Fold:
Amino acid sequence: MPNSRKIPLAGTEKIALQGARVIGPTDPHQLIEVSVVLKHRQPLPPAQHRAQHLSHDEFAGTYGARPEDIDKIRQFAREYNLQVLERGDEVLRRTVTLAGTAGNMEKAFGTELNEYEHPEGSYRGRVGAIQVPEEYAPLIAGVFGLDDRPVAHPHFRYHTPKGTFGARVSSLSFNPNQVGALYGFPANVDSAGQTIAIIELGGGYRPADIKNYFQKLGIKAPPVKAVLVDHAHNRPTTSNSADGEVMLDIEVAGAVAPGVGIAVYFAPNTDRGFQDALSTAIHDQLNKPCVVSISWGGPENSWTPQSMQTFDQVAQEAALLGITITVASGDNGSSDGVSDGQNHVDFPASSPNVLACGGTRLTAANGAIAQETVWNDGAQGGATGGGFSVIFAKPSYQAAAFAGSFRGVPDVAGDADPETGYNILVDGQSMVVGGTSAVAPLWAGLIVLMNQKLGRRLGFLNPLLYPINPPNGLHDITQGNNGAFSAGPGWDATTGKGTPMAAQLITALAAALPAQAAAAPAPQKAVSAD
Structure:
């Protein structure tokens, strides 16, 4: 066993979940897998909109992991009797997967693993920082998988007038394509050749539900493929589960962008699962997603700095590759569900390299929007997330949007109130569902349509969106609040820049886009049905 001095990895400190109780030490013979994320071979450039996007080969050669660093982690594994699980994408994803016993993992990473009991479920956990031999620490950006506590919640809400599960009707609800029409999404656009990646940390879908749902809408069902990450599964159970999130995402995205391929990346609800799911989707050269939709998250104070920084770096990689990421901003108002009396924002919506999506209440009359206000349903306790990060500095594209020094959330918004929500089919049951979870796939679908209309990938959209002012592509929401923050003219911490006016937005983006140095690549073949 090596005798090298160990040093703590900055930002890896954890504490036990509130209300958790230690049951006892983890069985030292328990088999564990961890993902060791290595640092880029050179720093990533600041995120910006790019006229030309890198190929995966160009990215790997410029920013991927150094092969010699990967070899050093293999050496580290041998020293501590850990096995390297070769994946073939270590340079591209900067991730080396190690497997071994809990006892050897504790020795390798200088930590103690215990089993915890918690009201939301038991988990294997650690407290304090991860420590590694000092010769390896400079190579490592993050270590994930030692602790398998849940890190995120799905941001969807069933329409339940009496506050109980099971309500299935609403006189104010919409089919997703009807919401798209109200926002002016272009019609008769075939999105075949593009793929939306959807990140799911639980639940599953039933192909029969997808077939029946789109048949009822009169829209061709999208080809949907499950991509399994870190031993997760497409595992549908009942409609009163994360299946509601999975089906909401698929049905909204597929209905507003007919013909689009959908790849659903299922991963465990852990910091390792979330990290690996995003990096797998971003660097998936088989399914080639152009947009990633994420409807899961949690308050910034529930994450380690290491988790947020490495996740944000992968989002920054997406910008280089021309992949847009849309993220739900949360359903618990300005507190983000934290009961400390302070304001909080949700991560990963607070990453400055994603398009954070807030929520509105939308009513219509005669095929047009009658009224749109901030979603805040005091009776049911749901409201759009929004506020200011305490982790990420204000990005340059928000420089003129508001005073302050930190990232503001959200960037844009869309219909999210469960009462004016979306008619979907979950495990054979027709439901009305809302939440900002619906807005992320709604905007993902719109981005696919705009890519098709403009003949190119928009990629990192935020720097192009912020100079656009209503009514040149965005409808400014000026009524309502999410608790601590109120809507008003211009950007605000409830609905961001506003909701889409798609036809005008496409025109504005066409004028704002820099000249493209080369012809847009031919559309890639959509994923096949599972």
Notes: The longest helix spans residues 305-321.
